[in-house]
Automatic annotation (TrEMBL), chain A:
GO terms for molecular function: acid-amino acid ligase activity; ATP binding; carbon-nitrogen ligase activity on lipid II; zinc ion binding. Its EC number is 6.3.5.13. The active site is at residue 338. This is Lipid II isoglutaminyl synthase (glutamine-hydrolyzing) subunit MurT. Zn(2+) binds at residues 201, 204, 217, 220. Pfam families: Mur_ligase_M (PF08245), MurT_C (PF08353). PANTHER family: LIPID II ISOGLUTAMINYL SYNTHASE (GLUTAMINE-HYDROLYZING) SUBUNIT MURT, MUR LIGASE FAMILY MEMBER. Residues 65-266 form the Mur ligase central domain.
From TrEMBL, chain B:
PANTHER family: DETHIOBIOTIN SYNTHETASE, LIPID II ISOGLUTAMINYL SYNTHASE (GLUTAMINE-HYDROLYZING) SUBUNIT GATD. The lineage of its organism: Bacteria, Bacillati, Actinomycetota, Actinomycetes, Kitasatosporales. Substrate binds at residue 129. GO terms for biological process: cell wall organization; cobalamin biosynthetic process; peptidoglycan biosynthetic process; regulation of cell shape. It comes from Streptomyces natalensis ATCC 27448. This is Lipid II isoglutaminyl synthase (glutamine-hydrolyzing) subunit GatD.
Length: 412, 242
């Protein structure tokens, strides 16, 4: 299926070269990795470049509100058991970034591609993927993004004619709605803690009933499909009923769910679960997330949480009290400029932890914690917060640009 | 109502709780408890009946289809109407504000009948979506400090004769009609486009609702330090061009 049987056209080659040159200039100017600008230049010279680059690859697309960067890494590691992989591992997940990543992998057999939710349908059309992994959908940056249910609807329409194998989370009604227009779906019981975007049936608008792990609409026939793969505690259950232990360096239930989906994807390409899961152990930190760094004689674990569902999953993986928790929140363009989502997060789960608050929007968070009845300290910067905490492990949770700020400060 | 109790009803969180407006419930609940009130909070899903004996009803913002469904179910249920007839206080935000009026435009692009509890009519704005920080002066009759909030809406709301403008906009859009007004109210029913959530940035509104529900003129003061700091920051932000 894969292999470089069909060489790139002269125009495509020129576009790749020009893109690489632009990326190099951007890097030299100190403006990041240059992957996005490189991809933009290349796509301008050859708008079909993404499709052309993908033609030589078995492509897997990964999309979700949360966990797509990590899952992309896990799938890439698993598929390396079967051949070279090219991937947009750093999370540049729009068409320009994807083009740039693929242009760098001329010898690869597989392309494992994280795709921004808004671009999934378009990229799926362009690159004719063999498989698409859909993890979860929940509210995120509502001041500029599409409504969550509308996004599911767009996926459903965009994926309707796709020949790809869809590997989808059976526990998220919005994902099931998006995926069930496709002919070939592998359902994975990957779980989802956050439920507040799917109380209303995506099909008919009826009120969703959610007894235990199950869910169904009380009015139409829309209900949870029977999964063939499942996350069960610390194990992946495969379609034959065999249980495979999950051993990850990455913490938390959500990453076990990501590993389960990744194992299902790997199996579709002939990589057995045992091999896939063993390879996933190699993944340590993903673009700085989950990294543990020494700073001012403390051990800081850096956790990224961008939206209510992400914060909820993060609370379930942090060390218990009295481990201190530092939280940093910004509301710059890349974060979404509305901080109302803080009120969808149940901060009472942090009771007992010493809490330290910083970031551009620390006052929004301070009011949120005050109303939750928690004690907290408002700090001007990371150093001050770290110095107020006792020596040892500190959990640091931040949203997108706040996370980048923290990484810069700790030299990560 | 007994002297020391407050029944707080959160209307349809399954449909109208998309923009953190749950915060309004949390702030009212917290500030009532800080005044020693025995707060009973009832979250009523859209397949349940709206109780008619609540003191304060809060309704949040939501996406377009849930808004249509909420209006249909509230009209069919009838409980909110009876509660208002009983003198209950209602505070609504954005999509919730629109459905309390006579009409709004639904996700199918149709004019849909609202509950008619506020004398307003909402249409879809022709211009760009209104998104950003807002600063406005609340009707002086209510005796409250300036209103700060975050708006995110396409709708435009016209006030009828019996609806009073809740606030006059200094920075931002509000109702978006061009008359500079934001929100609407009558004696017991309030509507606003402000998220934030609005009570987190304007705890005095929470206090106003509690006072109206208890029929008292004053409440014991509570610690407002973080709310005040946040207010100052957001008011400054609203007055600066983005």
């Amino acid at each position: 299926m894969a292999g470089n049987t069909e060489p790139l056209s002269p125009r495509a080659k020129l576009a790749v070269t020009a893109g690489k040159a632009a990326a190099a200039v951007s890097r030299a100017a100190g403006r990041g990795s240059g992957s996005v600008i490189g991809g933009r230049v290349a796509l301008k010279l050859d708008p079909d470049l993404l499709a052309r680059l993908a033609r030589h690859l078995d492509v897997v697309l990964v999309s979700a509100t949360n966990g797509k960067t990590t899952t992309t890494r896990l799938i890439a590691e698993a598929l390396r058991a079967s051949g070279p992989v090219v991937s947009n591992a750093l999370g540049a997940n729009m068409p320009a970034g994807i083009t740039s990543a693929l242009a760098g992998g001329s010898d690869a057999k597989y392309g494992v591609i994280e795709v921004d939710e808004k671009y999934l349908a378009g990229v799926a059309r362009d690159v004719t993927p063999k498989a698409i992994a859909l993890l979860n959908l929940s509210r995120d940056q509502l001041d500029r993004a599409a409504e969550t249910r509308m996004l599911a609807e767009k996926w459903r329409e965009g994926l309707a004619g796709s020949k790809a194998l869809i590997i989808a989370n059976a526990d998220d009604p919005l994902i099931v709605w998006a995926a069930s227009s496709s002919a070939n779906v592998v359902w994975v019981a990957a779980g989802q803690e956050w439920k507040d975007d799917a109380w209303s049936c995506p099909s008919c608008g009826g009120v969703m009933q959610r007894p235990g792990e199950d869910w169904f609409c009380g009015e139409c026939g829309f209900r949870r499909p029977t999964p063939s793969w499942a996350l069960s505690g610390d194990h992946v259950l495969d379609p034959h009923g065999s249980a495979w232990p999950i051993k990850l360096q990455l913490p938390g239930r959500a990453n076990k769910a990501n590993a389960t989906t990744s194992a299902a994807v790997a199996a579709a390409f002939g990589v057995p679960p045992q091999v896939a899961l063993e390879r996933m152990y190699a993944v340590q930190a993903v673009a700085g997330r989950y990294d543990v760094v020494s700073f001012l004689e403390r051990e800081l674990r850096l956790l990224l949480a961008k939206n209510p569902a992400g914060w909820l999953e993060t609370f379930s993986l942090i060390d218990p009290p009295p481990t201190p928790v530092i939280m940093s929140v910004n509301a710059r363009g890349a974060d979404g400029t509305d901080t109302s989502w803080l009120w969808d997060v149940d901060y009472t789960r942090l009771a007992g932890h010493p809490l330290f608050v910083l970031g551009d929007r620390k006052l929004d968070l301070a009011v949120r914690l005050e109303v939750a009845g928690l004690d907290f300290h408002v700090c001007d910067n990371l150093d001050e917060a770290v110095q107020m905490a006792p020596p040892g492990r500190i959990e640091v949770i931040a949203n997108y640009t706040a996370f980048q700020d923290l990484r810069r400060r700790v030299g990560n | 109502m007994s002297d020391n109790s407050l029944r707080l009803v959160w209307v349809y969180p399954d449909l109208l709780s998309t923009y953190g407006d749950q915060g309004n419930v949390l702030v009212v609940e917290r500030r009532a408890r800080q005044r020693g009130l025995d707060v009973q909070r009832l979250d009523v899903r859209s397949d349940q009946a709206i109780p008619t004996s609540g003191d304060i009803y809060l309704i949040g913002g939501g996406e377009d289809r849930p808004q249509r469904l909420a209006a249909e179910r509230l009209i069919r249920d009838g409980g909110l109407h009876r509660a208002v007839e009983n003198g209950a206080i209602v505070f609504s935000v954005c999509a919730g504000y629109q459905i309390l009026g006579h009409q709004f435009v639904n996700d199918l692009g149709e004019q849909q009948e609202g509950l008619g509890l506020l004398d307003v009519v909402s249409t879809r704005g022709e211009g760009a979506r209104c998104v950003g920080d807002v600063l406005a002066d609340i009707d002086p009759k209510l005796g409250l400090p300036p209103l700060t909030g975050f708006e995110n809406h396409q709708g435009v709301t016209h006030l009828g004769e019996t609806a009073k403008p809740f606030a006059k906009v200094r920075f931002g859009n509000g109702n978006g009609v061009g008359d500079g007004y934001e929100g609407a109210y009558n004696d017991t029913v309030f509507g606003t486009y402000m998220h934030g959530p609005v009570m987190a940035r304007n705890p005095h509104i929470a206090d106003l609702l509690i006072k109206l529900a208890l029929d008292v003129n004053a409440l014991p003061s509570v610690e407002d330090r973080w709310y005040e700091a946040l207010r100052q920051e957001r008011i400054a932000a609203a007055t600066q061009p983005a």
